[in-house]
Every structure is written in structure tokens, then in C-alpha cells.
Fold this sequence. Notes:
- The protein is α+β, with helices and mostly antiparallel strands and 242 residues long.
- The protein has helices at 4-17, 30-37, 41-53, 83-90, 108-114, 153-158, 160-166, 186-191; strands at residues 57-60, 64-67, 73-76, 94-104, 122-131, 134-144, 172-183, 199-209, 214-222, 227-230.
- Strands 4-5-6-9-8-7 form a six-stranded antiparallel β-sheet, sandwiched between helices.
- Residues 2-70 form the HTH gntR-type domain.
- This is Trehalose operon repressor.
Amino acid sequence: MNSKYLSIYNEIVRKIENGELSRDSKLLSENEYMKEYNVSRDTIRKALNLLEQDGYIQKIKGKGSFVLDINKFDFPISGIISFKELSQRMNLKSETIVNELELIQPDAFISKQLNITKKDKVWKVVRSRKIGNKRIILDKDYIVHNFVPCLTKEICEKSIYEYIENELNLKISFAKKEITVEAATDEDKKYLDLKDYSMVAVVKSYTYLDDTSLFQYSESRHRPDKFKFVDFARRKGSIHYG
């Protein structure tokens, strides 16, 4: 049988998920919940702590507990996954819009990111990712031409990774990633439905083939209210300090 605090937790979760408790709405006070459920303060605090831990509410000292926006998409940061694969996994109605596709001579910044010379050529691919009817991700990819000699709009609309692995028979092995929050650029404002947001969450990735060749540098720029970045971590053993 579930503990009383879990029953209270589950009931509040149900109200949040069905919209009875909307985003930014304030929960009842601890005293009010104690009277409503006829339980101790400790029981209510356990339920509220679990709600906060699971990302349903935010407790603000001196003000109370407020419902968070749960309509965010989980964006995995530890794996390498294409937008097409992510959309299929989450059963999302999605669309990719190819804004730019060209073969360019890299500038100093891109040359440095890909560890190539300015004489090498790279594909520049800029794509808006639409979920529902909103453009909420802007992907900017720079792919070394020596590894991917041909790219078309059709390939970019579907999945570049699928093309690389299934048609070019290359194996994508690992990526190094960093996450930053940056001011929205004019390009972000042009290609994303940013509403009133002036910042974007940016995932920068350096992606390698199985022979350790760096073939892609990308910036995935996200509207901040629509994503939460998730990872799974496991402690592998004790760390001994001398």
C-alpha cells in the first residue's frame, strides 16, 4: 500500500498533468493541505519535496510552491541522436525546414572547430525544427566535404545521419558536447518562433567517426521554454582522496 504522502503526491501530479493546476499557479499552503488531507506537516512536506524533486513544482522561500511548465521535451545530451530519431521516439508531429544548404570555404572560426584548413570545403546546413506548429530548434551544421561529398535538400529534410550511415556506410562513433545559454542572434529571431525570449539554450557538438576523424561541428539552438536536457549518470566506484 502506498504511503499517504505518495497518495497526495499522485493526486497533485494528476491535477498538474490534466491542467487542473496550470503553469505558474500557486499550490495551497502546507497548513491548508494538512487540513484538506488530515495529515501531519511532515507528510505534506514529503509530498511537496517529491514534487519538486521530479520537476513538477518550484518552492520559493517565503512565497510558497508554484507549478512548473511540464510541457517540455526531453533532449538527451549523453547520446548521439538525430532529430528524426528523437521525434519518432517521442511520437511528435515534426517538420524540418532547410533554410540554408551550401558548400563553403570555412572561415577562421569553423576551420578551428573542425581542425581543418581554410582551403578545405565544408557543408553549411541551417535547419529549423518545427514541433507542432512552432519552430523551436535551429540546427547549424558544418560537415567536412571530404567525408560527405554530396548533400541535397531532400537528405537534409530527412536525416543526414541516416544518409551517412546507410548510404555512405560510415560509422558515427562519439561526440563531445557543451551546453551554454546565449543571447538570441538575429538569425535565431529570423528562423525561430522565439516569442518574447531573448536567450537560447545552445548545445555545441563535435562529432567523430569510428576512426576518430572529426567530421562535424554543430550548434543546436533551442527555445528555452520547450526543452529540458536530460542525462543518466552512474557512479562507477569510490574515489579515494589522499
